[in-house]
Write a structure and sequence with these properties.
This protein has helices at about 1-10, 20-35, 40-60, 105-130, 135-145, 155-160, 165-185, 195-220, 220-225, 230-245, 260-265, 270-280; strands spanning about 10-15, 65-70, 100-105, 250-255. By secondary structure, it is mostly helical. The longest helix has 27 residues, at about 105-130.
C-alpha cells in the first residue's frame, strides 16, 4: 500500500494528447478553400470538421481524459560567475525611462506634411510642363486613383483642366501629406542622428522600392503612366522638406515624467506646485 502511494507521488496527471484540434483546423481550412475551388472540397472539409468536433468533445466531456506521467525530483544547483548583482545607477525617474524621451508635437507633423506637399507639387508640375507641356497631367493622374476610367481616356483629356479632378487630387494630396508628416513627427525622434537623411532619402527610397513592383499588380494602367524617376524625385523633395520642418520644431518631453496621478487624470492638488518648486531649486 505504501509502495503504491509512493508511486503515485512520483507521477502527475496531465491532459491526454489528442490530434482532433489539428484535424478540426484542417477541415475548416478545406471548407474555406472549397469556396474558391470546388464544393466537393468544402464537403470533405465539413465532414472532417464535424468528426473532429465530436472526437474532441468526447475527449474532454463529460470527463477529461488524462495520462499519468512519471516525475523525477531533482535539485537544481544554480551557479553564477558574477560575485555581485549589477545595479543601475540612475535617478528615480530615469529607472523606467522610455525611448524617445522627447517627441515632436502634433503641429510639427502637420507643418512638415503641408510644406512637403508644396515641394512635391512643385516637382510634379515641373514634370508635367517638361514631359507633357501641361501642369494638369500629374494632377489628373493623381485623381485617376479614384476615377480609374480616366486612365483609359486619351492624353488630351489628361493634359487639360478638370475642376472635379483638381478638387479630388488636392484633397488626396493634402490628406496623404499630412498623415505622412505626422508619421515623420513620430518616427524622427527615434533617429537622433541624421534625421534629414532618414526622412529625406531613406524613407522615400524605401517607399518607391515598395511601390514599384506592386503598383503593376494593383493598377497596371497607372503604373504605365508614371515616370518613376520624377516620382522618386518628388518623394525625395517631400521627405527632405518635411524632415527639415519637423526636425527644426521644438521638442516636448513625454508624459512618462509626470506623476501617475496627473497622467491618470486624478485631481491631486499640490502635485504640480511641488514639482515646479523642485525643478526651480535644482
Amino acid at each position: 500500500m505504501a509502495q503504491d502511494e509512493d508511486l503515485r507521488a512520483r507521477r502527475v496527471d496531465l491532459p491526454a494528447p489528442t490530434a482532433w484540434p489539428v484535424i478540426l483546423a484542417f477541415g475548416l481550412t478545406l471548407v474555406g478553400a472549397g469556396l474558391l475551388t470546388s464544393i466537393a472540397v468544402s464537403a470533405v472539409g465539413g465532414l472532417l470538421a464535424l468528426a473532429a468536433a465530436v472526437g474532441w468533445f468526447r475527449d474532454v466531456l463529460p470527463i477529461e481524459h488524462h495520462e499519468s506521467v512519471p516525475v523525477e525530483h531533482e535539485v537544481e544547483v544554480l551557479v553564477t560567475a558574477r560575485p555581485e548583482v549589477a545595479r543601475m545607477r540612475a535617478a528615480p525617474e530615469g529607472q523606467r525611462t522610455r525611448i524617445p524621451v522627447e517627441i515632436y508635437p502634433v503641429s510639427a507633423g502637420i507643418k512638415g506634411g503641408i510644406a512637403g506637399s508644396a515641394a512635391m507639387a512643385v516637382i510634379a508640375m515641373l514634370y508635367g510642363l517638361i514631359a507633357h507641356a501641361s501642369v494638369w497631367y500629374p494632377i489628373n493622374l493623381l485623381a485617376a486613383i479614384v476615377f480609374a476610367n480616366a486612365l483609359q481616356l486619351p492624353m488630351s483629356y489628361l493634359t487639360s483642366f478638370h475642376p472635379v479632378l483638381l478638387l479630388v487630387a488636392t484633397l488626396l494630396h493634402l490628406v496623404t501629406s499630412v498623415l505622412v508628416g505626422l508619421l515623420y513627427g513620430v518616427t524622427l525622434p527615434m533617429f537622433p542622428r541624421h534625421p534629414i537623411l532618414w526622412g529625406g532619402f531613406v524613407a522615400p527610397v524605401l517607399w518607391c522600392g515598395l511601390l514599384y513592383p506592386t503598383l503593376g499588380i494593383i493598377n497596371p494602367l497607372l503604373a504605365q503612366r508614371i515616370d518613376w524617376k520624377w516620382f522618386a524625385a518628388s518623394q525625395i523633395a517631400f521627405g527632405t522638406v518635411a524632415g527639415l520642418i519637423v526636425a527644426h520644431q521644438s521638442r516636448i518631453r513625454t508624459r512618462q515624467f509626470l506623476p501617475f496621478a496627473e497622467r491618470a487624470g486624478i485631481e491631486a492638488p499640490g502635485i504640480m506646485e511641488e514639482r515646479n518648486d523642485r525643478s526651480e531649486r535644482s
